[in-house]
Structure to design on (234 residues):
């Protein structure tokens, strides 16, 4: 039996769901059975978690800052309040059950907020000094900036290197990261690009989009999905 991987779709203002095929194809290619999780009743999350062998938290809108005790900054983007609440509870219950989670872009931010962490609501407005372009204008599979990986981290092991090149489509990023996570990847401007749980079997958050890079044959990105899937095998 293939591991069942729940994927959270994006949610628009009117609560229509939207899911990029790259996420689905990356899971299929790595040996998983993708299973899309629409926003439903919070009371049903325990049952949903029971079905899943792993959770893929995908990219999307900004996260409502009230969820990390801040009021909205002038440059906060569009938010999806129903998605925020549903995904945060989904992430918390997966963490409690020690089930594997891969968080991509917004997904990394959801993981951090789920354990009490905070975000830069607009990383360019809320950081001093020269910054990299984190909302790249290059094509979406173009690796634009570098990420320095921590020696001995899961990502460094997957990459076989301590420096990788990634694509970048975010204007929020994690700020304070609770001790449950190690910061394992940082951009040259100091922006956190990856976190890994120190207590769970496999909980990885990356700020870039490996699902897009995987579709162009990028081996590090493909291996991220393969390692996630191998952690999901029962
Ligand atoms: Mn970036």
């Amino acid at each position: 039996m293939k591991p069942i991987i729940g994927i959270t779709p994006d949610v628009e203002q009117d609560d229509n769901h939207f899911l990029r095929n790259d996420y689905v194809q990356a899971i299929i290619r790595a040996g998983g059975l993708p299973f899309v999780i629409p926003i439903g009743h919070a009371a049903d999350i325990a049952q949903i978690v029971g079905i899943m062998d792993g959770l893929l938290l995908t990219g999307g809108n900004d996260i409502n800052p009230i969820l990390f005790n801040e009021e909205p900054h002038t440059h906060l983007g569009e938010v999806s309040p129903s998605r925020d609440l549903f995904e945060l509870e989904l992430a918390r219950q997966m963490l409690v059950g020690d089930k594997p989670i891969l968080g991509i872009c917004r997904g990394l931010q959801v993981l951090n907020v789920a354990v009490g962490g905070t975000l830069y609501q607009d990383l360019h407005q809320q950081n001093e000094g020269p910054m990299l372009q984190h909302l790249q204008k290059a094509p979406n599979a173009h690796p634009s900036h570098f990420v320095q990986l921590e020696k001995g981290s899961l990502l460094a092991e997957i990459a076989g290197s301590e420096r990788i090149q990634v694509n970048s489509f975010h204007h929020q990023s994690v700020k304070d990261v609770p001790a449950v996570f190690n910061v394992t990847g940082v951009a040259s401007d100091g922006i956190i690009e990856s976190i890994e749980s120190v207590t769970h079997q496999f909980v990885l958050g990356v700020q870039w989009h490996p699902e897009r890079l995987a579709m162009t044959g990028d081996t590090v990105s493909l291996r991220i999905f393969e390692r996630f899937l191998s952690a999901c095998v029962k």
